[in-house]
Amino acid sequence: MKGMRAIYRRELAYYFSSWMGYIILAAFVIFMGFITYNAVLESKSADMRLFFRMIPFVFLFFGPAIAMRLVAEERKLGSLEILLTLPVSDWEVIFGKFLAAATYLLVMLGLTFPLPVTLMFLGNSEFGPIITGYCGCLLLGSAFVSIGLLASAIVKDQVLAFIIGLVISCFFLLMGEAFINSYFPEGIGYYLARLSLGVHFSSMGRGMVDTRDLVYFLGLIGFFLYTSVLALDSRKW
Amino acid sequence: MIDVTRLTKKYRSLFAVEEASFHIETGEVVGFLGPNGAGKTTTMKMLACFIPPTSGTASVSGHDILREPLQVRRLIGYLPESTPLYPEMSPRSYLTFIGRARGLDRATLKQRMSYVVGVTGLEKVLLKEVSELSKGFRQRLCLAQALLHDPPFLVLDEPTTGLDPLQRIEIRDLIKSIGSSKTVILSTHILPEAEATCGRLIVIHKGKIVADGSSEQLVADHGKGGHYQMVVRADKAAVEQVLTGHAAVSACSFEGKTGGSMVKFAVHMRAVGLAGGEALYGIARENGWSLAELAYVRVTLEDVFRTLTGGSSETKEAV
């Protein structure tokens, strides 16, 4: 556990050690603020609907981008050789890195919190559904991060890791959509929709809590973290 | 102690290490010698539990590298060959990270940090970024990292590369002083350094252990003795005839003429040491050659190394 904590702290510090980390945060907050207020002004209804509709597509890029360096860079630098000769298990390495990226996501989301607070003063939004929506965002973003982490554990090149992460994330997000399902026979389309990140997020984004969604997200994250551990283990060629 | 049993690492059809077996007692300082690509680094990576062997195994203080890798890693301080550090961190934050990951508590970490920073001479650069450090300082930081948790075993892959001669001596002395209380395995292809630091040398060539012992032992076992260099005033053909026919001489070769009518021969005697020299002097006196020079040319570790590894040019250059 101590090893995992040390890795978590190092990775988290990395996000805030360069201007890039702050620029990403600022870009995210400004962009989300802009589209939310714009929607409010146009529709004259003070709610967060567009925020929660847009966020999957924003996180689709941010998730793999946050995760792309986590293992790939260590491989490239060779620092994996010191990291993996510390008395730390592969699980602790992957989990520590994942938690750091998820914490960064939490900070990103936390910085947008003035949005719902102001909207509550302007309109009559309820607090509960917004909290549920935010939890959904965190789970969705974490799922993208876990996918990006797997990509990062597979390849040495960060850009390639980002692209692979993006493609897999995109598939998981959109596979329940009608335009993709139309390519598959009916039965398969039904199952694809049940495995889709987008479908599971949409109910949480609307403020509905369903245990099945929670189980789905945690299961998906667990799956990708597990495969990341396997990928890390594959150094044992 | 470290026990290595038929340790083998195979990459596709190529053996990086083939059936290496050796035993290292607590407190020994052992040097791995061998040309580049001989399998030194691979052996060390397996001992540090970074890569698993294809077959065979090793144990450190009774903990098997395959079954209890975390236990083994706790006992070992490992310095990789390429000094892979995080460029954005400072030596202080890096050592703090390593100490925390190794589970040192705050007080121990503080105390160990000031010790390793002192012995590796990192005080001046403690707050700089690693990316700004010279190769020498990076090497020292990597060494500091390996020493931080006060491990009973040290596995150091080329600990003195990238250092200037003065730093090299410092690090050599440091390893010697550490070696009195710890078990150290280090690899190098700088022979004088290995001779000066290590009580025991293991020579690896093409993945196999070809020799194992102290440098004196290696010279005695593999050096085929030394030879005598003799300069006499006499006729070349006559000298040659006498020497090749003499029972005490095992081989001789003409090396050239010196100082007018002097001839120089390299003579291998059946008896070595003083007895060989005495016999050769006797031969010269019997035949009436006036003896100008008689010297015993010792076999060096370098000669032994060259015979054992088939005269690898890389290593000769490094010497």
Q: How would you explain this protein's 3D organization?
A:
The complex is a heterodimer of chains A (237) and B (319). Chain A has 237 residues and is an all-alpha fold. Chain A is built from 13 helices and no strands. Chain A has helices at residues 2-15, 19-43, 49-67, 69-77, 80-83, 90-111, 114-122, 127-154, 158-174, 178-181, 186-194, 197-205, 211-233. In chain A, helix 1 (2-15) packs across helix 6 (90-111), helix 4 (69-77) runs parallel beside helix 8 and helix 6 packs across helix 8 (127-154). The two termini of chain A are 27 Å apart. The model of chain A has no long low-confidence stretch (mean pLDDT 88). Chain B is of the alpha/beta class and 319 residues long. Chain B has helices at 40-47, 69-75, 91-101, 106-120, 135-147, 165-179, 191-197, 215-222, 236-245, 274-286, 301-309, 313-318; strands at residues 2-11, 14-24, 29-33, 55-60, 63-64, 76-79, 153-157, 183-188, 200-205, 208-213, 227-233, 249-258, 262-269, 290-297. Chain B has a six-stranded mixed beta sheet with strand order 6-7-8-3-9-10, with helices on both faces. In chain B, strands 2-1-4-5 form a four-stranded antiparallel beta sheet, covered by helices on one side. Chain B has a four-stranded antiparallel beta sheet with strand order 12-13-11-14, covered by helices on one side. In chain B, a hairpin with a 3-residue loop joins strand 12 and strand 13. In chain B, helix 4 packs antiparallel against helix 5 and helix 8 (215-222) crosses helix 11. Chain B is elongated, with a radius of gyration of 25 Å. Chain B starts with a strand and ends with a helix. Classes of the chains: A mainly alpha (237), B alpha/beta (319). Chains A and B meet through helix 1 and helix 5 of A and helix 2 and helix 3 of B.
Put the structure in a nutshell.
Chain A is mainly α and 237 residues long.
Assembly annotation: heterodimer
Task: Enumerate how many helices of chain B there are, as a single number.
Answer: 12
Which shape of chain B, going by the Cα principal axes?
elongated
N-end to C-end Cα span of chain A: 27 Å
Summarize the amount of helix of chain A as a percent range.
over 70%
| Rounded mean pLDDT score of chain A | 88
Strand count, sense and barrel status of the largest sheet of chain A are: none
Relative strand content of chain A: under 5%
Backbone CA Rg of chain B: 25 Å
Mean pLDDT of chain B: 87
Structural class of chain A: mainly alpha
